[in-house]
Amino acid sequence: MPFRTFSRRQFGRIAGWSALGMSVLPAGSGLAQSSRENAAAGARNSSGFPKGFLWGTATSSYQIEGAVKEDGRGPSIWDSFTHTSGTISDKSNGDIAADHYHRYKEDVQLMKALGTRAYRFSIAWPRVFPDGVGTPNPKGLDFYNRLLDELLANGIEPFATLYHWDLPQALQDRHGGWTSRETSKAFADYSGYVAQRLGDRVKHFFTINECSRMVQLGHGLGADAPGLKLPQAGINQVRHNVALGHGLAVQAIRAHARAGTRVGPAENAVSCVPAFETPANVRAAEMATRELNAGYLTVMLEGKYTDAYLTHAGKDAPQFTPDELRVISTPVDFVGLNVYTPDHYVIAADNGPGYTLAPFPSSFPHMKASWLRPGPEAMYWSPRNVAKLWNVKSIYITENGTSSTDKPAPDGNIYDLDRVMYLRNYLTQLQRVTAEGVPVQGYFLWSLIDNFEWGDGYEQRFGIYHVDFETRRRTPKLSAAFYRETIAKNAVV
Ligand code: PNW
After folding, report:
1. Each residue of 440-475: pLDDT tens digit?
2. Are 229 and 220 in contact (CB under 8 A)?
3. Coil, strand or helix at 398
4. Which residues 6+ apart lie within 8 Å of 134 measured at CB?
5. What range does the domain containing 457 cover?
6. In this structure, are residues 65 and 106 in contact, taking their beta carbons and an 8 Å threshold?
7. Is 403 in the pocket of ligand 1 (CB under 6 A)?
8. What total of structural domains would you count in the chain?
9. Which of 49, 123, 258, 427 has the fewest Cβ atoms within 10 angstroms?
10. Which of 157, 267, 286, 399 is labelled catalytic?
11. CB of 341 shorter than 6 A to ligand 1
12. Digit-coded pLDDT (tens) for 20-37
């Protein structure tokens, strides 16, 4: 347990936060004692989280690992995409990224210094199967063996995502990637293999990260790998194949992992917030949640596409069989939700769907990234609507966070007050939803360290530890101290 073995003084030394006076405590007062007192205070205090609430951080393979040609890793569609001109705003790539492949031990110490007890990371499919299918690459899997051992030795529970968008290029070349069900099947084979090999230490697997973004940005807008701009029928078929891949993977993991292994999706569900809380608006936001997630969580949890989805798609509807719908809706153990921003504020209306999605005024505020409009209520309504609509009994917030300008002040520290403000407000809503009994069991802050932010390259920093991309040195931002204090108190601070 990190609390027992780590003092504030050590946090200051390892994380370098001593300059802000965070590390000074009377001699002998270890974090172990203060954290117990704090947790007790949190339980009494209305800002407290449930006892045993799981605090963690999240990352993904291509965004942090680097080492893209090491130990037999095959190329992924993100290697190809970043090396195509005009795709990434700062012309960068993930070839080295945060060099986590070589610095994972240091990064585990950063997690420990925060007091986190869980870590969500992703496994790079092309490290394990360089060709997508066929002969596995033991050296690739070994990296994750080393990482898991290091996490467990430091009291941190691993939560593994099987797909965070780095598809083996071979599958794109051979089958057109997710445009073909062959990729859905290959994903299940890879998932089953990983579950068998790592399932002695990984008890929680997420299948696919954010189906919605990889479908829309990767296959519709062309802004993410593989950079396709398919017609609507093609996009709808990819969406179906991805959902099928999720369902097949759930079955493969169940077939190959140890008993008691838990599995579920990690989805950036379209977040629908009542514009203000009247019973009619609350009901309207529930209906909008179901319809606007029709091709993702709704089909995964209900086993059918909604009538409105199929009517709207018309001749472009995906081709599917009843058997595929059964596979897609294989029961999951939990739902992971990435929550960044309210996608829609919803108002009840006397129209066909029963609601209006209010347009955002141009004056609505945003964080550093223009898409990231702060609406902390999304952290209440997303899990609440998912739990209510589908009777989900276990939810994890698999990502939440923001980028910030993150310029060091003259004293060298990064006072990321906008990130602290954002996190405090979202965590206040998370506390509210847990206090009302919605079964959210853990929270993974995106992200542990600054990393390669896809099309935005290194221009959007989401870490609570700053990474100098020249030296790869990690330095805690003020938000790291904020998160550490929140965890120690198990309450919003
Ligand atoms: C997620 N939106 O992407 C991804 O899972 C991460 O890999 C990424 O680094 C992180 O969030 C920050 O962007 C999202 O427009 C991108 O709502 C866009 C949205 C949501 C999530």
Report:
1. 999 999 999 999 999 999 999 999 999 999 999 999
2. yes
3. strand
4. none
5. 3-489
6. no
7. no
8. 1
9. 258
10. 399
11. yes
12. 334 322 233 333 334 444
